[in-house]
Write a structure and sequence with these properties.
Layout (H helix, E strand, L loop, with lengths): L4 H10 L11 E10 L3 H12 L4 E4 L15 E2 L9 H6 L1 H24 L11 E5 L1 H17 L4 E4 L1 H8 L6 E5 L3 E2 L2 H15 L2 E3 L6 E5 L2 E5 L3 E10 L11 H4 L2 E9 L5 H4 L8 E4 L5 E5 L5 E6 L6 H16 L10 E9 L6 E6 L2 E5 L6 H15 L21 H18 L4
Parallel strand pairs: 1-2, 1-11, 2-8, 4-13, 11-18
Antiparallel strand pairs: 3-7, 4-6, 5-6, 9-10, 10-11, 12-15, 12-16, 13-14, 14-15, 17-18
Bound molecules: flavin-adenine dinucleotide.
Flavin-adenine dinucleotide (FAD) binds next to helix 2, strand 16 and helix 11.
Length: about 425
């Protein structure tokens, strides 16, 4: 993408091609305009087109250019916020509805991948949230209890079971979530794009929306080379917003996150590290994540930007950390690395906004966007199709709030992660 190897790294090398798309040129019309070609926009485009709606999606760069093409690929069920806290924050109705929807979101993702024959390395085999120390274990025990009370198939593993499932002695336990799994994230975005285009959606890349203005009861969206007029607009630009709705970005603090990938590793190693192929991450604040890709590369990530001094600091940390977790990998070098920006909201919950008459969007997924982006995109389609009312959405309508000191907070994330990785002597 944009010939930058640090933007999408391994995923760009192993994803099947995106569908053929062109830049918007001249004047176009549609019933629905979608701004942003990540999971949210593409899912909305797919479900709208399948219902026979005339829909046009405008993406500034390429399909999956934002978080959707750069992430770890952990298809999670739920948010970072504890399940029992959600009804307290959102009210009983929205809290329970959101929990149900997000708990089921990985199934929706994996079903879509199967239904549309997406070559996106879908592995619905669960995830392992790995406990560091006694406090990490207590935290996961509570999370397990809360999900189990809701009938979710999650299980707290003890130290020995965790050692067998992870292939490392570093963790005091783990939460196995059988609803979840992994995918190749850019391949999934491109798979959604193929499916949406096949269903009749018109997708334009290299088509940044620079201006939005009313035209009677419609909206007119301008790009450098064309204009699109539509009654409804979905704004799906999220953490990568660079659009006429800058308030979306002002509500979000960017948390940088990087990944390093090994070359394909020998079968003997693949048989001992995550032998069940679950995706994994730990309970540390500056967390570590690790997962396999289809060819047996271990993808190893954490908080930080591969920029300036961060490049060398995070690489040196990753080489030390992977060897501490998995001593058999001592001396392993990485041949792909990339990073992106996670969009964090103040309360760590996503938002639904009405940005004008018939202008709607979800944003702020806090690093949990594969399942949520997919099901929220479908909710936006259902709302426009009149299948649900605003009251039946998974989140209430909220005003956009600006986070103060965003630059400072983003600096703290970036340089704080560098300091931690420079000084950390354990993994
Ligand atoms: C490094 C990293 C790791 C992550 N790990 C995980 C994970 O393991 N599991 C998980 O569930 N989530 C993870 N996430 C979060 C997840 O990737 C995002 O929440 C999700 O991709 C958001 O999808 P989206 O469609 O809403 O936005 P995006 O995928 O960011 O798409 C927004 C698009 O809008 C486009 N755009 C912006 N402005 C304009 C404009 N003016 N005109 C036209 N287009 C415009 C951008 O170019 C971009 O392509 C991670 C994110 C990152 C960055």
């Amino acid at each position: 993408m944009r010939n930058d190897p640090l933007s999408h790294g391994l995923w760009e090398k192993t994803a099947p091609p995106a569908p053929q798309t062109e830049t918007l040129s001249g004047d176009a019309r549609a019933q629905v305009a979608i701004v942003g070609g990540g999971y949210t926009g593409l899912s909305a485009a797919l479900f709208l087109a399948e219902a026979g709606t005339d829909v046009v999606l405008l993406e500034a760069e390429e399909i999956g250019f934002g978080g959707s093409g750069r992430n770890v690929g952990l298809v999670n069920a739920g948010m970072w916020v504890m399940p029992d806290d959600l009804p307290g924050i959102l009210g009983e109705t929205y809290g329970e509805r959101l929990l149900d929807l997000l708990g089921d979101a990985p199934r929706v993702v994996f079903d879509l991948a199967t239904q549309h024959g997406m070559a996106c390395e879908a592995m619905p085999v669960g995830t392992l949230h790995c406990a560091v120390g006694e406090s990490g274990l207590a935290q996961l025990g509570e999370r397990a209890r809360q999900w189990q009370a809701r009938g979710a198939p999650v299980r707290l593993l003890d130290r020995e079971e965790t050692r067998a499932k992870v292939g490392s002695r570093a963790f005091s336990g783990a939460l196995l979530d059988e609803r979840a799994g992994t995918i190749q994230p850019l391949a999934y975005a491109r798979g959604l794009a193929h499916a949406a285009q096949w269903a009749g959606a018109r997708l334009h890349t290299g088509s940044r929306v620079t201006k939005a203005e009313r035209s009677g009861s419609d909206w007119r969206l301008e790009t450098a080379t064309g204009a699109l007029t539509a009654r409804h607009v979905i704004v799906a630009t999220n953490a990568y917003t660079n659009s006429p709705w800058p308030q979306i970005r002002q509500e979000i603090v960017h948390l940088p996150y990087f990944n390093f990938a090994t070359p394909p590793l020998p079968q003997a190693v693949r048989d001992t590290i995550l032998p069940g192929r679950q995706g994994a991450w730990d309970t540390k604040q500056i967390l570590t994540s690790f997962r396999w890709d289809r060819e047996g590369r271990l993808v190893f990530g954490s908080v930080g930007a591969l920029k300036g001094a961060g490049q060398a600091i995070h690489r040196a940390w990753a080489e030390r950390a992977i060897a501490r977790l998995f001593p058999e990998l001592k001396g392993t070098r990485f041949d792909n690395c990339w990073y992106g920006h996670i969009g964090m909201t103040a309360d760590h919950l996503p938002k639904f906004h009405r940005l004008g008459d018939n202008v709607i969007g979800f944003s702020g997924y806090n690093g949990r966007g594969i399942g949520p982006g997919t099901v929220f995109g479908k909710s936006l389609a259902d709302l426009i199709l009149g299948r649900i009312s605003t009251d039946e959405l998974p989140l209430p309508v909220s005003d956009v709030t600006t986070q103060s000191f965003r630059g400072v907070r983003e600096g703290v994330y970036r340089y704080g992660a560098e300091a931690v990785h420079l000084l950390r002597t354990v993994f």
